[in-house]
Design brief:
This protein has about 240 residues and is an alpha/beta fold. The protein contains 8 helices and 7 strands; from the N terminus they run βαβαβαβαβαβαβαα.
Length: about 240
Amino acid sequence: MSSILITGASSGIGLQLAFDYAREGHQVIACGRSQEKLDANFAGTSIQTLCFDTTNKQSVLSAACDVGDLKTLILNAGSCEYIDDVMNFDSDLFSRVVQTNLIGTAYCLEGFLNKLSAGGTLAFMSSSATMLPFARAEAYGASKAGIDYLAECMAVDLYRHKIAVCNIKPCFVDTPLTKKNTFAMPGSINTQQASQYIRKGLAKQKPIISFTPWFIFGLKMLQWLPRRWIQIIQTKENA
């Protein structure tokens, strides 16, 4: 079976994907920045672990030296922090989120992309949040919008290399990261459901893997509203 490398596999969607792909018989390399968490999750399984920090370029490149040919590369690692006081804009917070979600992804591309063979699949983890502006999401939304554009460009440039690019745009998924949210998360699904959507999409090498359908439909309908209305609605909801 094929070899699949997943970053951010210590928890949440990445953890679920690692277990599900291993159960299907794939050779899985689960990556995370904590060896302790990787050992706790995968000890005694067939899953190989690889410890590195995606925000540290040298750490990524050193780890990549231990990886052979890949059929699928899933760049899932990411974080989320919110700008709570926009009038006192926290540029350090903004930088941290962009560094993790976007620049860290670039480091992984440098380290692992050349491990992908022709016919392989490169998957990015974006978010359905990029479809609309959301309150306090300046850092997270900007980083994921960057992932969207990056994925589109990579799809063009990798076409001649016969490598498919898939951009994953989930709805709310119940993970340790989203448990920190203090607002309502309509349509939230569990990691098992998210993994099923993602694995089905990757198997078909779909350019965009978005879910759940009704949630995405709702966001598309909201996109037709005047931006002023969206600003008013969000202001009332976050008052």
